[in-house]
Amino acid sequence: MTLTTGLGGSPRGPEFVSPGIFVSPGNEERAAGVPAGAPARRWPLVAAAGLALVAVSAGTGGAAGYLAGSPTAATPTTGATSVPPPVAGVPSDLVGAAARALPGVVSVQVRTGSGGASGSGFVFDDRGHIVTNNHVVAAQGSVTVVGSDGRRLTAEVVGTDPNSDIAVLRVTPSAALRPLAVADLSATRVGEPVLAVGSPLGLSGTVTAGIISALDRQVRLGGTVRQTAVQTDASINPGNSGGPLVNARGEVVGVNTAIATLEGGGSIGIGFAVPIDRARQVATTLIGRG
């Protein structure tokens, strides 16, 4: 059983088993993470069966998904055992945050001979570098980005890092492409309002609101090693991949990467983003190499 979400009905990656869900004999390989395309076996219908973590790029023919593993239920999250002091100066003006973020967010479109994929990205610096997800550009086709002003620019892939699911593109610098500021994660708190900005289902310039649900959620994104991710309940759907999760100041908290979904459905209010500290470090390294 392969989950299908987003444009074109392309596979988004195999299921994973949520903690506490029974795995029938012979299906352990699905729980361990067998790549998409392997022979599928049906799971028993039990409570919460079908819960899966899937990439949120939107394919238009080719498979743009990647493998993502199950969260670790026992991992404590920031703020789970103690109540932090109130954060002074956290604004509540999400309209202003959207206005600051949108000029720095782009749609990313990949075209290959057999189809392609689409996702989102954001401007990393004033030299034309764009951060997105590795799984968005993994099809290795021609890449273009569309800015908030509607201009379409040819992009070069500077470098990719599958383990962190981060990729860097480069386009001709433009005054219309404004670099986004990054947040200080050490000062970020669970419960803060955030916006997911990107092009879900090809709808460019879409903004959805929520809060930070957890800061140190252990998940497997892109590679085989579990890493911490920022969890949010902001609506994230296919096409949001690579777009920024921003706080109420318009600063990037993380790079939207995956969602939990039930039986191939869309967002159920559990999304994950690569923390901006890790994404910035990887992007800086890729730019230095490229």
Q: What's the quick description here?
A:
By secondary structure, the chain is mainly beta. 11% of the residues lie in helices and 34% in strands.
Total strands: 15
How are the strands of the largest sheet arranged?
10-11-12-15-14-13
Inertia-based shape: globular
CATH fold annotation of one domain: Thrombin, subunit H
Structural class: mainly beta
CATH class of one domain: Mainly Beta
State mean pLDDT (0 to 100 scale): 77
Per CATH, the architecture of one domain is Beta Barrel
Give the percentage of residues in beta strands. 25-35%
Helix content: 10-25%
Order of helices and strands: HEEEHEEEHEEEEEEEEEH
Distance between the termini: 39 Å
Q: Give the C-alpha Rg.
A: 18 Å
Largest sheet: 6 strands, antiparallel, barrel
Spans of at least 5 consecutive residues whose pLDDT stays below 50 are 1-49, 61-69, 73-81
Architecture overview:
With 290 residues, this protein is mainly beta. Among the domains are: 94-98 and 181-279, Thrombin, subunit H, CATH 2.40.10.10; 102-178, Thrombin, subunit H (Beta Barrel). It is 11% helix and 34% strand. It contains four helices and 15 strands. The chain has helices spanning 28-32, 94-101, 134-137, 276-289, and strands spanning 51-55, 58-59, 68-69, 105-112, 115-123, 129-132, 142-146, 152-161, 166-170, 193-198, 206-221, 227-232, 244-247, 252-262, 271-275. The protein has a six-stranded antiparallel barrel with strand order 10-11-12-15-14-13. It has a six-stranded antiparallel beta barrel with strand order 4-5-6-9-8-7. A hairpin with a 5-residue loop joins strand 11 and strand 12 (227-232). The N and C termini lie far apart (39 Å).
